Amino acid sequence: MPRFAANLSMLYNEHAFLDRFAAAAKDGFQAVEYLFPYAFSVQELQQQLQDCGLQQVLFNAPPGDWDAGERGLACLPGRETEFRNGFIKALDYAAALECPRIHVMAGIAPTSAAADVLQQTYESNLQWAANAALSAGVDVLIEPINTRDMPGYFLNHQEVAHQIVQRLGAPNLKVQFDLYHCQVMEGDVTRKIRHYLPTGRVGHLQIAGVPERHEPSLGELNYDYLFEVIDSVSAQCGWDGWIGCEYRPARGAVPGGTSQGLGWLQAWQESRR
Q1: So where are the chain's domains?
Q2: Contact between residue 100 and residue 90 where contact means Cβ atoms under 8 Å apart
Q3: C-alpha angle 39/11/83, rounded to 5°?
Q4: pTM more than 0.85
Q5: What is the pLDDT of residue 268?
Q6: CATH assignment of 3-271?
Q7: What is the mean pLDDT of residues 61-69?
Q8: At 196, which helix (H) or strand (E)?
Q9: Residue range 257-272, pLDDT digits in tens
Q10: Is 228 assigned a catalytic role?
Q11: How far is CA 221 from CA 22, 152, 165, 188, 269, in A?
């Protein structure tokens, strides 16, 4: 049965960040993910996880200057030292929070660099990160992101991500398969789930409604059907990862807005009892 993690960067925005852990636990979530932990001490985050009985299942490595529009460093030539220092910091947080996955954002491709240089830089950084994380028991994830939400992002398609993972051959380098981004860029989501989940290369799933990135019950994707597909394929191949709920509640950051939009989750869980 799919296991769902609350993305605290997008959900429960009616609360201060550290209060979102308790709100997620109250709604029945057993795990959380979010973009970045670095604005808080590991002790603050540890306390919230412990007090609320939650698992930390994913966060991102430092992305560069987020406020200036940077969306990762991995493909950027000349930023290798910054990338490595940031990833070491991420590993320290992962160890303290017992988090088994770190997402490495590729970055916005600079138009001043040749495509082959960007690819070489990207793969070299990923190989280094995977090697650094291996002894810690941490998976390094790469995520294809759609060009509508993030124009110029270096990695956009599932097939390309899987080719990179296969080419580098690191056992702890995997793909973060976001069904929302996949639908926007490629479609054919069901067949991609059935094709990629059994390969062992998918480390994490994420969901949101398409096209507005609201609750998965809103929009053009039939998530009840997709959850059944994930359930069936997982039972056959032994995939036991988490599904991150990375969407913006349609009611926005109003009191109870996130909780009122969780009918889709409650209905799914009831159907499996």
Answers
A1: 3-271
A2: no
A3: 40
A4: yes
A5: 84
A6: 3.20.20.150
A7: 97
A8: helix 189-196
A9: 899 999 999 988 888 7
A10: no
A11: 30, 25, 27, 11, 19
